[in-house]
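Handout, section 3.2

Students often ask what a structure token actually looks like in practice. Rather than define it abstractly, here is a full record for CCHC-type domain-containing protein. The first block is the sequence as you would receive it.
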Amino acid sequence: MSIKEYSFKFTLLSKYAPSLMSNPRDEISRFVTGVSDLVEEECRTGMLHDHMNISRLMVYAQSIEESKLKRKNSELKRSRLDEQGQPRFKKRAPNQDSSSTPKVNQEKGSGSPFPKPICANCGKKNFGKCLAGSSGCYACGKNNHQVINCPTLTAKGRETKQASLDGPNPNAPRKNRFYVLEANKDK
């Protein structure tokens, strides 16, 4: 039985036992004893809140049940696809590439055809002095501040902000504007 059906039945039958439902906390506790194992733990946690009443708990339990059922269904579909032997992602043939020029150990966006060496200190690929483990700034390399307080980055930010305040860039592409003309209502 779903939480929605159970909530309806619980509300309907609680009219016949007003002595059991006199205290709101008892009513919530009795509701939680009958919910499915799927949402029981969340309902027990939810009933601990001071602002929780029976109607809020019912809505909360329904939403938890719906999300868990959706998750189970998606996992079930995913496992079916995996069992059928179909790959989940389309694999590209090794000789196919999206660009016409081959890539030679080039890092994303580096612009350099030479690969970055692996750092002995941190194990990552980087050029120059490794700042891992030091209290230095990763932007400029100085030791007296961190990236969040870097004066060079702040100065660059001020320059771009000032450029935008100075006015529009004459070299920037123009944006098309569409104006609506109002028709003569007199005609």
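Discussion prompt for tutorial groups: DSSP finds five helices and no strands in the chain. How would you have guessed this from the sequence alone?
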